[in-house]
Design goal:
By secondary structure, the protein is of the alpha/beta class. The chain is built from 9 helices and 9 strands. It has a single domain, classed as 3-Layer(aba) Sandwich (Rossmann fold).
Amino acid sequence: MKSVVITGSTRGIGYGLAEQFLARGCQVTINGRSASGVDEKVTTLGEKHSADKVTGQTGDVTKPEDHQAVWDTAVAKFGKVDIWINNAGIGHPMLMVWEIPAELVNRVVDIDLKGVIFGSQIAIRGMQQQGFGHLYNMEGFGSNGRTRPGISVYGTTKAGLRFLTQSLTAETKDTAVKVSALSPGIVITEFITDQYKDDPQGLEDAKRIFNILGDRVETVTPWLVDKVLSNDKSGARFEWLTSRKITWRFLTARFNKRDLFTE
């Protein structure tokens, strides 16, 4: 039975991953910044799946000691951590670089890049000590080198994350630790819509592309979880929205109308 830790997992993709791991019989430790939010989701997941297979730990991913607390909670409950997924992240409004307040730049970099570095440090140290484990980092827009106006700071952190993941794969080559990457594509959650909260017309304009290329959490997360559980190779990269899939989506868009923004 695999023990899985997922940072930033009280909503969105992280919560979807937690549900899918539990549905497959895994033990799961969730994490979020709000104690009430973590407690609520632990209760909900426990009632839906199995209360003895889920636990949670609050924590701010910008603090190494909070990552350690998440690790310690998982080990205290389940005795080990087989899989650690650095999922926590935030975005920012669709603004040019010079329009983004310095404090928001710091926040995005602290969470989306430094938070992953700190999480990786704690996970790898713990996995080296226990003698096994697989670390996964969650990619996003910018990881593949593509650029787009309005998302530069977030994209920069994801470009750096790709480098980090590749470097960690090399650094752990001769150890018991494996490192890989997950690329979920465009998943329609609050993470996406919050980027347009001050620009509702911008969201309306973007919906056409999102409805072609995007997917819901419940579509993407089962595929990701199955890939993780079947993988024993370091350096793997599981990409949901491949170039071939993008081409097919555009070719068939006229005949396959989708609306991902309605319940």
